[in-house]
């Protein structure tokens, strides 16, 4: 029988890191994680409740993210670190964002994931050189316009936004909906179907382009800090130089979503950790019947089920990051992670809110924000049903998609 030395307790270890997953990071990357954790705790967390209540994204918050140096760390040749950080660290950074606030995680993910990666993956070298340096420093903010008012998960086959070429200019017409950051973004990657060859193409539409009209969506009960827009495009003229040259069709769009679904799964892990930590602290402090409610068996049952979900999901995502680093990462693996982790997140935020009792519906206690925001994460980047169809096709060999 062989024995191994126990893993030493980590400095600043999260209570939710029950199996010491952070110990898998090399020292240099863990320093980056701890720096990000401190930044989010000290600079971002104090602002989010007021911003969430007002449904605003204050300029101060954007400036703090710009100065943090967190943008573009995952991209070779951009950001403060070269080479790019590992997918494991990149995932844990998304987790840290979700742990503090799902809206901030979404704002950052739209810019740093969907927007940035669209240009990084779909643009040629000239386009990367033109757009990405300012996006890497967050002097320019990006957005990603795929979803349409009448098409979400089925937009691949039913995209109504069109692109028509006239010489060296493309003319875009149509509408997009639920587009994060679009009310203020400098660069919006818009997907449209070419009327000549019926292929989906991508265009960088720059802020202020005539005919491009984003209107903020009001009345949301989740991700209230995120500035989602409904966009109308009327004779929007975009130069051929702004068509992403390496975006050849919806297969390239799927490549972007494969990467970003993994990021959303990490965000969902962060949301459940944030809710669990709030519930654990509250249970230790809240006194009922003369003792802290943490001493009650039924409360401990909810906390144990929560840490079980967190630990299982964290393990899944660690392996997913390894597959990404090895270059053998598949669509169905990303889909399963997003589906499973988002479902477990929904359970944990519900149990956490339950521990707070009536206080759990007050924004001042934070857990209400996590509870509401979880519903949006559960749906975006592909619903549960769509992820199920992707994984189901993979494991059975039969497509159950209708159409």
In angstroms, what is the radius of gyration? 21 Å
Largest sheet: 7 strands, mixed
Instruction: Write down how many β-strands occur, each being a DSSP E stretch of 2 or more residues.
Output: 9
Poorly predicted segments: 1-9
H/E topology pattern: HHHHHEHEEEEEEHEEHHHH
Structural class: alpha+beta
Question: What percent of residues are in strands?
Answer: 5-15%
Shape: globular
- The CATH topology of the largest domain turns out to be Butyryl-CoA Dehydrogenase, subunit A, domain 3
Q: Roughly what is the average pLDDT, rounded to an integer?
A: 92
How many domains? The number is 3
Report the top-level CATH class of the largest domain.
Answer: Mainly Alpha
Give helix % range. Answer: 40-55%
The N- and C-terminal alpha carbons lie at a distance of 57 Å
Can you characterise this structure?
It is built from 11 helices and 9 strands. It has helices at 27-54, 59-68, 87-100, 102-122, 125-136, 155-158, 250-285, 297-326, 331-355, 367-379, 384-396, and strands at residues 142-145, 162-166, 169-180, 187-194, 200-206, 212-216, 228-239, 287-288, 291-292. The strands form 2 sheets. Strands 1, 2, 3, 4, 5, 6 and 7 form a 7-stranded mixed sheet that branches. Strands 8-9 form a two-stranded antiparallel ribbon. The N and C termini lie far apart (57 Å).
């Amino acid at each position: 029988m062989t024995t191994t030395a126990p893993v030493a307790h980590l400095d600043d270890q999260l209570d939710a890191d029950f199996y010491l997953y952070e110990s898998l990071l090399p020292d240099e990357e863990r320093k980056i994680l701890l720096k990000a954790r401190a930044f989010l705790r000290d600079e971002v967390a104090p602002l989010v409740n007021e911003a969430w209540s007002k449904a605003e994204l204050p300029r101060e918050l954007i400036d703090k993210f710009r100065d943090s140096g967190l943008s573009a760390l995952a991209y070779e040749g951009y950001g403060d670190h070269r080479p790019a950080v590992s997918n494991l660290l990149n995932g844990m950074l998304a987790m840290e964002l979700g742990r503090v606030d799902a809206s901030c995680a979404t704002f950052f993910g739209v810019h740093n994931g969907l927007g940035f990666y669209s240009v990084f993956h779909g643009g040629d070298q000239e386009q990367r050189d033109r757009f990405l340096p300012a996006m890497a420093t967050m002097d320019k903010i990006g957005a990603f316009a795929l979803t349409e008012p009448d098409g979400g998960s089925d937009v691949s086959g039913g995209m109504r936004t069109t692109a028509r070429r006239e010489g060296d200019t493309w003319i875009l017409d149509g509408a997009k909906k639920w587009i994060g950051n679009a009310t203020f973004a400098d660069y919006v990657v818009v997907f449209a179907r070419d009327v000549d060859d019926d292929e989906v193409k991508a265009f960088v539409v720059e802020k202020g382009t005539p005919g491009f009209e984003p209107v903020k969506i009001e009345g949301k009960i989740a991700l209230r800090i995120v500035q989602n827009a409904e966009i109308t495009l009327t004779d929007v003229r975009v130069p051929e130089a702004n068509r992403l040259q390496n975006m050849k069709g919806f297969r390239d769009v799927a490549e972007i979503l494969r990467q970003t679904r993994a990021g959303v799964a990490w965000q969902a892990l962060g949301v459940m950790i944030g809710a669990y930590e709030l519930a654990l602290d509250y249970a230790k402090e809240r006194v009922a019947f003369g003792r802290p409610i943490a001493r009650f068996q039924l409360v401990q049952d909810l906390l144990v089920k929560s840490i079980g979900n967190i630990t299982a999901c964290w393990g899944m995502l660690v392996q997913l990051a390894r597959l990404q680093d090895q270059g053998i990462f598949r669509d169905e693996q990303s889909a399963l992670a997003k589906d499973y982790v988002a479902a477990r997140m929904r359970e944990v935020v519900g149990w956490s809110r339950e521990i707070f009792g009536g206080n759990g519906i007050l924004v001042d206690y934070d857990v209400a924000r996590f509870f509401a925001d979880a519903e949006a994460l559960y749906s975006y980047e592909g619903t549960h049903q769509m992820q199920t169809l992707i994984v189901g096709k993979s494991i059975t060999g039969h497509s159950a998609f209708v159409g």
